[in-house]
Amino acid sequence: MESGSGDEAPRQQLLSGSTLVNRYSIQDVIGVGGMGSVYRARDLHFPNVVKLVAVKEMINMAPDPLIRETIVQNFEREANLLATLNHSSIPRIYDYFTQESRSYLVLEFVHGKDLETVINDANGFLPEDQVISWGIQLCDVLSYLHGHKPDPIVFRDMKPSNVMINHNGDVILVDFGIAKAFQSGIKGTMIGTEGYSPPEQYRGEASTLADVYSLGATLHHALTRRDPRMEPPFSFAERPVRRINTNVSVEMEAVINTALQYNPNERFPNAAAMKDALLNVARHTGMLSKITTALPVAVGGIKPLWSFKCEDELRGTPLLHQGSLYVGCYDNNLYSINAADGTFQWKYATEGGVVTKPAHQDGNIFFGSEDKCLHVVNSRTGKMVWKYYTEGKVRSSPRIAEGHVFFGSDDQDLHAVNVNTGRAVWKFATDAPIYSTPLVVNELVYTGTESGAVYGVDFRGALKWRFQAKRAVSSSANFQGQALFFTSVDSTLYALDMKNGWAIWKFRLGKASVSSPAVADDYVFAGAADGFIYCVDNHNAKEIWRFKTDNQITSSPVIYKDSLYCGSVDGNLYCLEYRTGRLRWKFATKAAIIGSPIVHDDIVYVGSTDHQVYALFA
Amino acid sequence: MVDFLRKLFGKEKQQQPERPKAADMITTAPLSDQQITAIVSNQNANYEMKQLVASVGQSVGKQRDHNEDSLLAFTNTISGSAESIPFGLYIVADGMGGHQFGEVASNAAIRLIAGNITKKFHSYLYGLPTQMIQDSLQEVMEESIREAHKYVQREAPGSGTTVTAALVLGQQVTIAHVGDSRAYSVYPDGRMEPITRDHSLVKRLEELGHLSKDEAATFPHRNVLIRALGQGEVLEADIFTVPFPTTGYLMICSDGLWGVINEKDMFRAITDAPTLHRASQNLVEAANAAGGPDNISVILVQLIG
Q1: A232 and B138 in contact by Cβ < 8 A?
Q2: Which of A202, A293, A286, A204 is closest to A251 using CA atoms?
């Protein structure tokens, strides 16, 4: 080790097999902190037994000699303080020494995991009784520290990563890294670590009640799995435990709320009082009896207003126009259905499956078919007005804007056709089939292709910009402000600058997606093949919520009033509160829902691959 | 709309014969306010802004003996498919830690962030053959902040710095922000809208309703930060994208400016100036005239055609 500590690699970790002061044989790195690593080592003074120790390393990188010295002093203070303590929840200290720019502390090795890892590895919430029992032990050790003579010891850094759970399930408090919690500069600027610390700690006051707060924060994190470092400081009151984890008892929530009071005087007066409160919770809840709450959700209680049966699967999205519902079907027909009662009005046969969402203009209905044509029929009679031939199947839905209809085809062209004459105005050649429905905004037409390209094309059919995703973009773009949103089979939800095609942000989905994003307020919503419906903040790509369905989502979500509606391949139509992602109701059809619902005047319409169209109260 | 059709049928001859000029038959009436704003906004939409201009101002202040602020202003264009796109990178960092090298932290933060971003855009900025940048703008920002955070933690332990970085591409501004330096959208009608939210104790307590606006103004711990680059294990910077204030200015400054003179005075200092350069100097002078208790840094950016 001595030979390897040259200037060229000053921060290098110790290699396993190297030996410190001829005594500690390094085995493995068990942790990495801001100042160095923690190793598991074997103490060679016990040749006949394997005695493991934890070696905490601190590398002194500070260029200023004064700071270097302060850092060594802090380290020795931690060592000396630990040496005076004797408690089953505090690791014993065996040794400390400094070698060149590295200082080492040799501690009892704790077999186990730290609580943060336990929380992160858990499959769901940790059981309340388990957290209560750890809480009681932590109160015990805090009482011991706070009762230290001559001066009470304030731990100051209570958080899950400093709590080890050993192989007996008991807690050990580690890392008395007291000095680094606060730094003050000449102008009195202070910087604190956020998350678990109480408000008064930011003012430089750290009392024993600060530890009570941090313990409350630690228990809150353990029960909710919400890391407070990822939330605004002191915002626990905004997310009470039971709102996130309904299995937790009212009593336990009350204990945590008390510990987390903003005003220190309103918390438990000391750790012992908090322990008593936790013991009371344990008695009340019997520690064993779990409270299970049923989902407050209507399932199966939803009856459709009407349903209409076609001869094959419905894979597309309906259109509602002047009291009629128009929907394409894989039986090659476009159906016109009375939206009020679900009665048949007419059908128009094409020579291929119809998976596109129809559009309307001037009394005509426009839709593409796998017979390679864009069909235009009279909305009342279902008689053909004109037909436009492409050289590939038409699975991209038509978009009508400024007197023209824009759509893509498997012939790899984006077509612009005059709505009245049915004559091509231009074709824009891409490099792959187009399933995506063009979006037309601010004199640009946007479309994705099966090669993953996204094009911004102007009204003359000239390329303005091109963006390349890693895999197909079958979804249709949506926009808000200057940002264009779409999903890709490369499992990403993208936001591009509409003017120049630069990626503003990307949001990673669990799996591929063909679901077209919906937008509302500052949110973007999309489904993915992992079965989740995602809600993402459109300014910074932060996930707001996600909702799990039981199978892939190819349907595109729609927002209506306070709700989001989306179909799933699990056969259900879901209605969620769009701001929170909470389930309002779901409606089961007899087969996968691939197309998207539409909502009009408080009625949702959706087609299913069970061959039926349903109308439901929103 | 007519314009639009003409564009659409650009190649074909217009079907309708040209109409005689009918100006004589039209009675004129003043346009309503609504019509005027519609026309003005319409023109803005069609008018492609081409270039960014920036000016900076900096002063140690009247009461400090050294400067812990750092700033960077870099303006260029990059080539797009159809036209060149304005590109700008503007950063203010306010270091803290006193003897523990506040200026080291702010210098390093700017160097690392700007280095990482310009490396990503290198071939675009210098007209070399380009490969598409795989990362989104927000990912580039996030990575840059992360690198700088790790570097400061390692090389200047104990110190920290605020960072407010704006990456302008076209008419979008992607912001990365930690601490209490600020970015503002300054509009010609006198609005100064803060784009960033301070990561300070006083702001947090105000948001939670524990302090009123008046109490906040006199709160003794106004300079306590709850997030700073180089501090804490997990650093979460605010990263988001907003439209560039095309009719006004983007302003980035340290608390040596915004904490010393109010928004009205800042606005006056900007708009009274004959040039953008003068505007930055006015801001610095105004803060110094008000006592100059802290280091002052300011960047003003404008999009011009």
Answers
A1: no
A2: A286
Quick check: bond before B129 cis, omega within 30? no
Write out pLDDT tens, residues A135-178. Answer: 999 999 999 999 888 778 888 888 998 899 988 788 998 876 53
| Closest to A317 in 3D by CA, of A604, A2, A559, A29 | A604
Q: How far is CA A461 from the centre of its chain?
A: 39
Paired sense of beta strands A463-468 and A478-480, if any: unpaired
Asked if residue B24 belongs to a domain, the reply is: no
pLDDT score at B79: 78
The answer as to whether B61 is a domain residue is yes
Burial of residue A407, with CB atoms counted within 10 A of its CB: 0-12 exposed, 13-18 middle, 19 or more buried: buried
Q: Residue A505: which of A544, A546, A536, A465 has the closest Cα?
A: A536
How distant is the Cα of A481 from the closest Cα of chain B, in angstroms? Answer: 8
A235 CB neighbours in chain B (<8 A) are 208
Question: How many domains does chain B divide into?
Answer: 1
Pick the CATH number of A112-285 from 2.20.25.110, 1.10.1740.10, 1.10.510.10, 3.90.1170.20: 1.10.510.10
What distances in angstroms separate CA B293 from CA B60, B104, B214, B220, one per listed residue?
9, 21, 21, 15
Closest in A194, A234, A459 to B4, CB measured:
A459
CB within 8 Å: B172 and A497: yes
With beta carbons under 8 A apart, name residues in chain A contacting B171.
Answer: 482, 499
| pLDDT given at position A298 | 45
The predicted-structure confidence for A105-130, as pLDDT tens digits, reads as follows: 898 888 888 999 999 998 889 999 88
- A558-560 and A563-567 strand pairing: antiparallel
pLDDT tens for A374-421 read 999 999 999 999 999 999 999 999 999 988 999 999 999 999 999 999
Query: Which residue segment(s) compose the domain that B222 sits in?
Result: 52-304
* CATH number reported for the structural domain that contains residue B169 in this entry: 3.60.40.10
At A16 the pLDDT is 86
Domain boundaries, chain A: 19-108, 112-285
Right CATH for A19-108 from 1.10.3210.10, 3.30.200.20, 3.40.190.10, 3.50.50.60 = 3.30.200.20
